[in-house]
Design a protein that fits this description.
elongated, Alpha-Beta Plaits, six-stranded mixed sheet, binds zinc ion, alpha/beta
């Protein structure tokens, strides 16, 4: 084992080498592959047993006094398109540095320790998220997925994973589940900075639900159709959206409600809209409060 102290900042620089705008480690692409490979080699250099499963999740196992299920930490290796320097990678490399620090102090921990670099969390290349951790925990998704270049998930997965699994010394299997898992992750909101805190503990995982709402009208001439005789999908949708925002604002403080995408047809400035589709993204710490809000929301939409 090398005894040099590993600096997290240096590691982040080594793994964030993209000269594009932001980081583009979409699952199974070249940059993703390069980093998973570099992590395996780094682990091996520090006497870890590397395991790569069939979805490209990397586990680095370090010994403990006991032979038992390990205490694990880590995060996801993939990024969104033009992702940040820290999202995912901070939890992988920060976890690695923390483990190294533990062993460099000369104590063999009671339980074995594992670092996990999940293959995918973001859903940025294929239209499915958490494929890495789902597989890791035995919940394999069978939906056939295709990226925007027409490459199937299975093809991309097999090509990339084969290259990792042939690294000498790598164990090819689904790693048995750890006893516990802790993830270090950058906060993706303003609350810690506003509170002048550097660290926060997550107290809950939000329940999330997404919808598309489509409002139908009748396309017609913008100049000659009297206002009172229109079936304007855009007018109806905008009033409906305003009502949904009112409902969300009156709901619990922990609810996040977002309409972030809107499509209008025919999307022509002098034609009354025939169809308007908008997205809804709802997140809430409490399953019950989310269910209540979704019921209220559906009542508003159905009676509109
Ligand atoms: Zn993340």
């Amino acid at each position: 084992m090398t005894n040099e102290a590993i600096q997290l900042g240096d590691l982040l620089d080594q793994f964030n080498t993209s000269d594009e705008v932001g980081q583009n480690r979409l699952v199974y692409n070249q940059q993703w592959l390069r980093n998973q490979r570099a992590l395996i080699l780094l682990g091996q250099e520090h006497d870890a047993q590397a395991t790569v499963d069939d979805y490209g999740n990397v586990s680095l196992d370090f010994p403990g006094q006991e032979i038992s299920a390990p205490i694990a930490t880590g995060s996801h290796m993939d990024t969104v398109r033009q992702g940040g320097r820290y999202d995912g990678l901070y939890g992988v490399l920060g976890g690695f540095c923390a483990i190294q620090k533990l062993y460099q102090q000369g104590h063999l921990p009671k339980k074995p320790v594992r670092l996990i670099s999940f293959s995918e969390e973001e859903g940025s290349r294929f239209p499915a998220a958490f494929t890495g951790s789902n597989y890791y925990t035995g919940h394999q998704q069978v939906t056939p997925l295709v990226d925007e270049m027409g490459i199937t998930f299975d093809q991309a997965r097999r090509d990339a994973v084969r290259q990792l699994q042939t690294i000498p010394g790598v164990r090819r299997q689904r790693a048995p589940l750890p006893a516990s898992f802790t993830e270090l992750h950058i906060e993706q909101g303003p609350r810690l900075a506003q509170a002048h805190q550097s660290l926060g503990l997550v107290t809950g995982i939000v329940a999330q639900d997404r919808y598309d709402v489509t409002v139908y009208g009748q396309a017609n001439h913008a100049g000659t159709t009297p206002m009172a005789q229109r079936q304007d999908a855009m007018a109806t949708a905008s009033h409906l959206m305003a009502e949904l925002y009112d409902l969300a604002n009156k709901s619990s403080k922990s609810l996040s409600f977002t309409i972030g995408e809107i499509h209008v047809s025919p999307n022509v400035s002098n034609v009354i809209a025939e169809r308007c589709t908008f997205s809804i993204d709802c997140r809430e710490e409490s399953d019950e409060r989310l269910a209540t809000f979704l019921t209220d929301m559906q009542v508003v939409i159905q009676h509109f």
